[in-house]
Amino acid sequence: MDFLTEILGTEIKASIKYFKKREIIQKQGFVSKNGFYVKKGLIRSYSVDEKGKEHIFMFGAEEWIIADLESNVFNKPTQLYIETIEASEIVIFSLDYFNHDLSTKEKLQKNSILLTRRIGSLQRRVIQLMSSSAKQRYEMFLETYPLLPNRLPQKMIASYLGITPEALSKIRGER
Amino acid sequence: MDFLTEILGTEIKASIKYFKKREIIQKQGFVSKNGFYVKKGLIRSYSVDEKGKEHIFMFGAEEWIIADLESNVFNKPTQLYIETIEASEIVIFSLDYFNHDLSTKEKLQKNSILLTRRIGSLQRRVIQLMSSSAKQRYEMFLETYPLLPNRLPQKMIASYLGITPEALSKIRGER
Q1: What pLDDT, on the 0 to 100 scale, is given for residue A3?
Q2: Using the beta-carbon criterion (under 8 Å), do B129 and A126 form an inter-chain contact?
Q3: In B, which residues are within 8 Å of A144 by CB distance?
C-alpha cells in the first residue's frame, strides 16, 4: 500500500480483497463510496447503454486507481460498473479521505495534482472520441496502456476505442 | 470578479478584456498559462482534426470558466482553441494560483471540489459520447446548457454533439 499511503496518508481506511476473474466489484446506479487500487491483476470500468451494449470507460492494471469521485463527493449514483478481467488483488479504500482525512496542505496539494492529471486524461479522451481516426485512437490506447495489449481480449480493446473488432483487427494488421 | 475571488482568493493576477465576436483567444499547440472566466458573452473551445474539421469541446457563457489545467500544470501544449461566439467580456486570470497562491487549506479544499466537478462532467461527457443516442446527447446538452440553445447556431450544437446538423434538426422537430 506504499503508493496509496504516499498520496492519501496513513490514516485512510483500506482493506485488501481477492477477486476471481470476471467478478463485479461496483454496480451502476449506486452511490460509490470506495476507490479501487489494483495491487495485482486487471479490472475495467464500463457503462451499459439502453440497448444493453457495454462500452469500456477505462482499464486499470497494477498501480492504477479506479474511483468515481463525483459519485462519492456529490452523492450521485455512479454510471459505471467495475469488473475484474483477471483474478485480482484490490485495495479497497474509503473515499472519505476526500472530506475528512486529507488534513494537511501538502496532501491536498498532492491530491490536486492527481485530480488535474485525471482531468487531462479525460479531456484527451473526449477529444479523441470526437476527432480522432480509429488508427489514432489505437495509438493513444497503446500510449496510455503500453503493457496491456496482450492481456486484453480484442473485443474489449475495440469496445474501449468505440470501434468494431473487425476494424481493430484491420488496424493491427496494418501496423 | 466576486465569484472568482471567492474561489481563488484576492491575490490572483487577473485582467478584464473585451473581445469582438469570433476572435480567437487561445490557440492549439501552445502551453496555456491562463484561465478564462466569462463575465459577459459566449465562448467555445474546440479541437481541429487532421482533416481540418472542428469539434466543439465545450461552451462557456456567463459565470463559466474555461481553462486547460493540464496544459498549465504539466506544461503540455493545449489541444484546444478558444474563440468568442458573441462579443464577450472575459476575465483572464493567471493559473499560477495552482502552484503558488492557493495557500490556505480552505482554498485548496474549494479547489478540489471544483476539480472533482470537472472530472464528473468530463466523465459524463465520455460516457455520453460512447454510449448515448443522439437524442439522449441532446437532452444532456439541454441540461448542461439550459440557457444556450437559442444563442447558438444549429451547426455548433451539432458539432458539440458529434452529429450532423440534419440529425439535430430531426431531433428538435420530434420534441
Answers
A1: 62
A2: yes
A3: none
**Helix and strand totals (H; E) in chain B:** 6, 8
For residue B167, the distance in angstroms to the closest alpha carbon of chain A comes to: 16
Global pTM exceeds 0.80: yes
Distance CA A96, CA A101 (A): 7
Higher pLDDT, B111 or B2: B111
User: Under CATH, to which class is A2-102 assigned?
Assistant: mainly beta
Structural fold of domain B2-168: Jelly Rolls (2.60.120)
Cell of B111: 479547489
Average pLDDT over residues A72-76: 84
**Minimum-distance CB partner of B47 among A113, A117, A127:** A127
Q: Using one digit for the tens of pLDDT, what is the confidence trace for A33-70? A: 899 999 999 999 999 988 899 999 999 999 898 988 88
With a CB cutoff of 8 Å and minimum separation 6, the contacts of A37 are A1, A3, A4, A14, A63, A64, A65, A90, A91, A92, A93
Could you report the predicted ipTM of this complex, rounded to two decimals? 0.84
Interface of B with A (CB under 8 A): 47-50, 53, 55, 57, 68-70, 73-74, 76, 79-80, 98, 102-105, 108-109, 111-113, 115-120, 122-127, 129-133, 136, 162
Q: Report residue B134 as a C-alpha cell.
A: 443522439
Q: Is pLDDT of A107 > 80?
A: no
Q: Do B112 and A108 touch (CB under 8 A)?
A: yes
Q: How far apart are the first and last CA of chain B?
A: 38
The residues spanned by each domain of chain B are 2-168
Amino acid letter for position A73: V
